[in-house]
């Protein structure tokens, strides 16, 4: 099943030169924040991300508010995003049929199921084994198929598990293939704790690409050890053209202690632009969106690109300096 929304701007370009970005900041980015973030702030963030040209945004998670309190306003966020009629596709995590039905009631046209390549992480994250999680996804996929709703899937811990350590590439490949066979249009491979390095990423993808084509895979790299961008580079080299990222490098997983933020979307866009690849994203407006949420959270962005661009004098300031005869 095809994704609910892709950028009209980048659709016209040859596939080789186009990279699709799935913005996960409002969900993966905010799910672990210690203080409650107002729904209005989340909505303003999504509005700014849309304004920056992002056309696929994961906005919330229909998970238990007891497990992840920060996503407790899922109904409000999804319903208001859908009623805003912004361009693009907006998705939400749904771990089971209960979550799927709630997401649909709020107007969701795309959802994402999430499994783990490690038994320990599966139990800590969604309270069931990998096999049980697949059984829970079956009715979600069945209902989604009947409703014409697109379903994406995540596989977590593809390059390491916070509880079990190393994860075999073959286990990731088999799980990804099963999710694809169940009807998920894309499998996002998650380095949940950011322990991967380019060589490990390459070895993993070589294995997965024996079983699935690159165009149904995405890379989801957390930046715990500063490796996310080089892992994207390795994945691009292997043929992947879809990557998840979070504005201002927001994020962390409540069930993966020590996991820091996602790859910052600003850093990803800057690198892709430098490689001549098209994303449809306006970097300045993206940096503004990042500055907005960092202002709300009272923290400095970890994105190097956001810091560099944010430090530039504003255009009006430059014009003023030029009028006064000095450019600084
Ligand atoms: P459970 O306790 O096993 O569920 O939780 P249950 O079926 O036994 O039901 C227990 C209670 O939960 C019941 O309520 C249900 O109604 C309720 P009670 O009768 O006790 O009042 N419940 C729900 N409530 C809201 N929404 C639902 C739902 N389902 C049941 N969908 C469950 C199972 C999956 C719900 C729970 O474990 C959970 O919510 N876990 C949170 C998982 C999560 O959000 N983790 C973070 C995201 S994953 C991630 O970040 C990784 C990723 O980014 C990729 C990567 O980086 O690798 C995707
Ligand atoms: Mg994640």
Topology order in helix (H) and strand (E) letters:
HEHHEHEHEHHEHEHEHEHHHH
Low-confidence stretches: 1-13
| Global outline | globular
Specify the helix fraction band: 40-55%
| Tally of helical runs | 14
How many DSSP-defined strands? 8
- Rg estimate, integer Å: 19 Å
Mean pLDDT: 91
Give the end-to-end Cα distance, rounded to a whole number of Å. 54 Å
Distinct small molecules bound, one entry per kind: 3-hydroxy-3-methylglutaryl-coenzyme A, magnesium ion
Strand content: 5-15%
Helix-strand category: alpha/beta
How does this model look, in words?
This protein is an alpha/beta fold. It has helices at residues 8-11, 25-29, 39-51, 74-83, 97-105, 119-126, 130-147, 169-181, 198-208, 228-237, 265-274, 283-297, 304-310, 315-323; strands spanning 20-23, 56-61, 89-93, 110-116, 150-156, 186-191, 217-221, 242-245. The protein has an eight-stranded parallel β-sheet. The model is unreliable at 1-13 (pLDDT under 50). The structure holds 3-hydroxy-3-methylglutaryl-coenzyme A (HMG) and magnesium ion. Magnesium ion binds next to loops.
């Amino acid at each position: 099943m095809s994704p609910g929304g892709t950028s009209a701007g980048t659709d016209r370009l040859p596939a080789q030169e186009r990279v699709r970005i799935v913005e996960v900041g409002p969900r993966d980015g905010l799910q672990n924040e210690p203080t409650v973030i107002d729904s209005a702030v989340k909505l303003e963030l999504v509005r700014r991300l849309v304004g920056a040209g992002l056309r696929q945004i994961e906005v919330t998670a229909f998970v238990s508010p007891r497990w992840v309190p920060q996503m407790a306003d899922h109904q409000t966020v999804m319903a208001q995003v859908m009623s805003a009629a912004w361009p693009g596709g907006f998705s939400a995590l749904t771990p089971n049929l209960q979550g799927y039905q709630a997401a649909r009631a709020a107007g969701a046209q795309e959802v994402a199921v999430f499994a783990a390549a490690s038994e320990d992480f599966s139990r800590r994250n969604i309270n069931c084994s990998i096999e049980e999680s697949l059984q829970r996804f079956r009715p979600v996929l069945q209902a989604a198929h009947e409703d014409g709703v697109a379903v994406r899937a995540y596989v977590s811990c593809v390059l390491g598990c916070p509880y079990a350590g190393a994860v075999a590439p073959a286990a990731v490949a088999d799980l990804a293939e099963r999710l694809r066979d169940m009807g998920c249009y894309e499998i996002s491979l998650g380095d949940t704790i950011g322990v991967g390095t380019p060589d490990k990423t390459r070895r993993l993808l070589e294995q997965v690409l024996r079983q699935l084509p690159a165009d149904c895979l995405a890379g989801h790299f957390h930046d715990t050890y500063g490796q996310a961008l080089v892992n994207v580079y390795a994945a691009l080299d292997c043929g992947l053209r879809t990557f998840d990222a979070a504005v201002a490098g927001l994020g962390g997983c409540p069930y993966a202690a020590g996991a820091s933020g996602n790859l910052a979307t600003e850093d990803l866009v800057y690198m892709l632009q430098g490689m001549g690849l098209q994303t449809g994203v306006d970097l300045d407006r993206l940096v503004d969106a990042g500055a907005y949420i960092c202002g709300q959270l009272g923290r400095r962005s970890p994105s190097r690109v956001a810091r560099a661009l944010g430090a530039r004098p504003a255009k009006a300031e430059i014009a003023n300096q030029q009028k006064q005869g000095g450019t600084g």
